[in-house]
Amino acid sequence: MSVIDVIVPDEQEGTKAVVRSWLVKVGEAVAENDPLVELETDKVTQEVPAPATGVLSEIILDTDAEAEPGALLGKIDADASATARPEPVERPSPSGGEDEKLDTDKLGPNSVKKAEVCKETRLSPAVKRAVLQHDIDPTHIEGTGKGGRVTLEDVDRAVASATVSHVGKPKTAQPRVIEPFNATDIPHDRMRKTIAENMVKAVTDAPHVTALFECDFSAVAAHKAAMKAKGKMLSYTAYILKAAADAMAVAPAINGRWEEDRIAVSPTIDIGVGTALGDKGLVVPVVRDVGSLSLEEAGASLDALTGKARDGKLDRKDVSGGSFTISNHGVSGSLLASPIILHQGQAAILGVGKLEKRVIVRELDGQDVMVIRPMAYVTLTIDHRVVDGHQTNAWLSRFVEILETWPAA
């Protein structure tokens, strides 16, 4: 018998992976490069393809098991075929059963039919739970996984689309039957657990200090409007990204990290930008070498990465290797926050609050006058082992100066 090992990919970049779900059962045939098993970290979900054509003969790491780089996930019998399956050899699952059972007795009347469809459709356990939770028929979802398989991201898009399609419908439209609200506890998923572990480790290992400035975005707003008139759409985050890179010149250690024998300063400015995924947490795609990019190049790279993040298509290389992070939390409405430095190997994280018009005092022609300006609070949270208050304030001063004096388009 020719047995091929299924191995956890090495490109983990320090993140902890767990087995999310097996897409093929022991004894089932699989073709080379077909999706075989899903691995999940706090950043991305990755499909591991079958390394050969054959039959899955054994599962070594089952659902929720930790998957270290290079670990053995399972085995494929390359000599077997679908008509001559080996005797299944499957390890017991942590939940105590081979298959995840769908208890229709606990579902509302509108969800029982969906449960029956889930049993007959080839979906991962996580996708089955999602379609039942949102009361969506999986046969109406266009799958983007290999072979047209429905993924969790496909379910999320279907839920968002259904929500939008119900807004603004005429009153004569047939009302949707909504089951009674049932407040229940929300079990932890793997992403939430990993985020929690990383947060605890971050605040335990690094002494956090936060400095607060405010910034007048008038010049940026004027430049942004002029670019829009020329048909070039830029987000405020693109300006923030570029200003952050340019400000590194006055305090290079902000782009560094703590080592036992030195402060290691990154040779390139690779900036991660926090991207919210709704209730599923957030990911931080990294824009590479921002210091060498123009404003438009930085904006285009950022748009491409955040688009991939929201479509669930980020690769591991897209979320690894950042030297600095931006949390533009103001896009969700908050005025002020002091984000945590989640990524080991970074010295600081920039927080940008909601941009809003405020009355401030400016000196004009020798007199103090009240004017209305688009303002935002900006914070820099630093690892105090790496930089001190002087460097922190110097960096923030330069960052604000760049934005407030942005040249006209």
From TrEMBL:
The record's comment on protein family reads:
Belongs to the 2-oxoacid dehydrogenase family.
Q: Which domain of life is it from?
A: Bacteria
Domain Peripheral subunit-binding (PSBD) stretches: 122-159
Keywords attached to this entry: Acyltransferase, Lipoyl, Transferase
Q: What assembly does the database describe for this protein? A: Forms a 24-polypeptide structural core with octahedral symmetry.
Which Pfam family is one of this chain's hits? 2-oxoacid_dh
What taxonomic lineage is listed for the species of origin?
Bacteria, Pseudomonadati, Pseudomonadota, Alphaproteobacteria, Sphingomonadales
The Lipoyl-binding domain is annotated at 3-77
Which species expresses this protein natively?
Sphingomicrobium clamense
Enzyme Commission designation: 2.3.1.-
Cofactor(s) recorded for this entry are:
(R)-lipoate
Region of interest called Disordered, as start-end residue ranges on this chain? 78-108
The chain's coiled-coil residues are none
According to UniProt, the name of this protein is Dihydrolipoamide acetyltransferase component of pyruvate dehydrogenase complex
